[in-house]
C-alpha cells in the first residue's frame, strides 16, 4: 500500500505534463493518441488530488507557444479539451471542485469556450479544490500583463509609482489567485520550466520525473509529494525561523485537519 504523510501536504501543486508525443511515437502512433492518453492521466490525477485534499491543482494544458504546433495537433488538443470538460462536468460539480482557467483565453476556439465558460460559472461556488487549466498560457506573458495593468493605473493617477511592488504585481496575476505553487512537477524527463507560473515559482519546490505524462500514476504523484515532504523550505530565512513561519502560514487540507483533530499525532494517509 502507498502512503503519504497527512501533514505537510503541498497546498497548491502545479504540473507540467510533458511526454505525450514521445509516448505515442514509441508505439508508432500519431501524437494525438499520446494526447488522448494524456487526457486520461489528467482525469486520474484530478481525482487523486481531490481525494488527497489538495487545495489547488494547476495543469499546464496548452502554452501560448503551443499555437505554433501543426494545425492538426492543435485541433486534436482543442477537441480533447472540450471532451474532457464535457465528460468531467458532473464529477467536477459533484465533488466541490471549482474549475478555473488562466491564459489568453480569447484565443481559444468557440468549441472550447462553449463548454469552459459555463463550467467555470457553474462551479464558482465550489470550495474544496480549485482545478486551474493553463490554456494559451505563458508566464512571461502573465508578468507583462500585470505590468501593463499597473502602468495603466499609474498613468491614470489611481496609484503612485511606489505602489508598484511585488505584492501589487502579484495581485494582477490570475495564476496566483490560489496562492503560490508549493510544488511543481514536470514529467517527461526534461529539467526546465518552459514559461510556467514564472512569478509564483520563486520559492516552489521542483520535482522532475522521467515518466511520460500518459503513464503518470498514483505512485508517481506520491513520489513527488513524498519528495516535497522530505525537504526543508526556508524561503530565504534560516532553518528554525523558516519552520515557524511555514507552520504559521500552513493551510491544512480537510483530510489533514480531520485526522489531526482525531489523533493529534503524525498521520499517514493510505490510498
Ligand atoms: C506536452 O507533451 C503536452 C502538451 C503540449 C499538452 C498537454 C495536454 C494533455 C495532457 C491532454 C489534454 C489536456 C486536458 C486538460 C484534457 P508533448 O506533446 O510536448 O510531448 P513530447 O515532448 O513527448 O513531444
Q: Which features does this protein show?
A:
9 helices, binds farnesyl diphosphate, six-stranded parallel β-sheet, 271 residues, Undecaprenyl pyrophosphate synthetase, 8 strands, alpha/beta, two-stranded antiparallel ribbon, 44% helix
Share of helix, binned: 40-55%
Q: Structural class given helices, strands, pairing?
A: alpha/beta
Span of the ends, CA to CA = 7 Å
CATH architecture of the largest domain: 3-Layer(aba) Sandwich
Oligomer: single chain
Just give the CATH class of the largest domain. Alpha Beta
Small-molecule binders: farnesyl diphosphate
- Radius of gyration, Cα only, in angstroms? 19 Å
CA-based shape: globular
Work out the helix count: 9
Secondary structure topology:
Blueprint: E1 3-5, E2 12-16, H1 20-25, H2 31-52, E3 56-63, H3 71-94, E4 97-102, H4 110-122, E5 129-137, H5 139-155, H6 166-170, E6 183-186, E7 205-208, H7 218-229, H8 239-249, H9 254-263, E8 268-270
Parallel strand pairs: 2-3, 2-6, 3-5, 4-5, 6-7
Antiparallel strand pairs: 1-8
Helix pairs in contact: 2-3, 3-4
The structure holds farnesyl diphosphate (FPP).
Farnesyl diphosphate (FPP) is lined by residues 17-22, 35, 38-39, 42, 59, 61-62, 66, 77, 80-81, 84, 133, 188, 213.
Any overview of this molecule?
This protein is α/β, with parallel strands linked by helices and 271 residues long. Helix 2 (31-52) runs parallel beside helix 3 and helix 3 (71-94) runs parallel beside helix 4 (110-122). The radius of gyration is 19 Å and the shape is globular. Helices cover 44% and strands 15% of the residues. The strands form two sheets. The chain has a six-stranded parallel sheet with strand order 4-5-3-2-6-7, with helices on both faces. A two-stranded antiparallel ribbon has the order 1-8. It is built from nine helices and eight strands. The model is unreliable at 250-267 (pLDDT under 50). The protein folds into two domains: 3-231, Decaprenyl diphosphate synthase-like (Undecaprenyl pyrophosphate synthetase, 3-Layer(aba) Sandwich); 237-271. The chain binds farnesyl diphosphate. Residues 17-22, 35, 38-39, 42, 59, 61-62, 66, 77, 80-81, 84, 133, 188, 213 line the site of farnesyl diphosphate.
Amino acid at each position: 500500500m502507498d502512503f503519504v504523510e497527512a501533514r505537510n501536504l503541498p497546498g497548491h501543486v502545479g504540473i507540467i505534463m510533458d511526454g505525450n508525443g514521445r509516448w505515442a511515437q514509441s508505439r508508432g502512433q500519431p501524437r494525438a493518441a499520446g494526447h488522448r492518453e494524456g487526457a486520461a492521466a489528467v482525469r486520474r490525477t484530478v481525482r487523486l488530488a481531490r481525494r488527497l485534499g489538495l487545495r489547488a491543482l494547476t495543469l499546464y494544458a496548452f502554452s501560448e507557444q503551443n499555437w505554433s504546433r501543426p494545425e492538426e495537433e492543435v485541433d486534436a488538443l482543442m477537441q480533447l479539451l472540450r471532451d474532457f470538460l464535457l465528460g468531467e462536468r458532473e464529477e467536477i460539480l459533484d465533488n466541490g471542485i471549482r474549475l478555473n482557467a488562466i491564459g489568453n483565453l480569447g484565443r481559444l476556439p468557440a468549441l472550447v469556450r462553449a463548454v469552459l465558460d459555463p463550467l467555470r460559472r457553474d462551479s464558482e461556488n465550489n470550495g474544496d479544490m480549485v482545478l486551474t487549466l493553463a490554456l494559451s498560457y505563458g508566464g512571461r506573458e502573465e508578468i507583462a500583463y500585470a505590468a501593463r495593468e499597473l502602468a495603466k493605473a499609474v498613468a491614470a493617477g489611481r496609484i503612485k509609482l511606489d505602489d508598484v511592488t511585488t505584492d501589487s504585481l502579484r495581485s494582477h496575476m490570475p495564476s496566483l489567485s490560489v496562492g503560490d505553487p508549493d510544488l511543481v512537477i514536470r514529467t517527461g524527463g526534461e529539467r526546465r520550466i518552459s514559461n510556467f507560473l514564472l512569478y509564483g515559482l520563486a520559492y516552489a519546490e521542483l520535482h522532475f520525473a522521467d515518466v511520460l505524462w500518459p503513464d503518470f500514476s498514483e505512485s508517481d504523484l506520491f513520489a513527488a509529494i513524498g519528495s516535497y515532504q522530505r525537504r526543508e523550505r526556508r524561503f530565504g530565512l534560516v532553518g528554525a525561523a523558516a519552520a515557524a513561519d511555514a507552520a504559521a502560514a500552513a493551510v491544512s487540507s480537510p483530510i489533514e485537519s480531520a485526522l489531526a483533530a482525531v489523533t493529534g499525532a503524525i498521520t499517514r494517509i493510505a490510498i
